[in-house]
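Researcher: I need the complex structure. Ligand is magnesium ion. Inputs:
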Amino acid sequence: MNTSTRLFVDMDGTLARFHDEVQYLERMWEKDFFRNLKPFENMVKAIKQLAEQEPEIEIYILSAAIDGEPPFCYRQKNQWLDEQLPEIDNFHRIFTKVGAPKSEYIPGGIDKNDFLLDDYNKNLDEWLEFGGSSVKCVNNINHKGRIGKLWDGELVRTEDTPERICSQLTDIIYGSRGPVISKTYGGRR
Ligand SMILES: [Mg+2]
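Model: Output:
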């Protein structure tokens, strides 16, 4: 059972400027596409700050990787992290299959003290459904009300300063944390 507070951070659209690349859906198969994505610098810095200031929050990467043989996407994402966010070690990097609920990849399931920071409402909604807590990452392209309903839960913005993002995440995580309740939840294992 998880009794710690964990933050799971998405990559594409949250830490990495995936959608800024021209024709990203075609180009993501190109050599080193994922490795060369530019970071959302303030978000990356905010995660570094959070890791330093709040060591009791266990920070993980939780990112979907497209299939391939050899598994180029995993490798490139690891290289990107080695360069941009080496504070998150290999043990704290979880890669999922595209389309599968992210909570399925967390051994033992998730609870309220497990926070997902992600730019995609579908991932955030599924995380809530499985018992976790969700924080939307508002980037330069989403949260404009063009597709589906606007996210009305907690959010942080990539354009804010690292200090502000970090303090908002801290407030959200500690603000909504009640007493640790034993998990009756289950989720998919
Ligand atoms: Mg994303």
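Model: Summary of the prediction. The longest strand covers residues 57-65.
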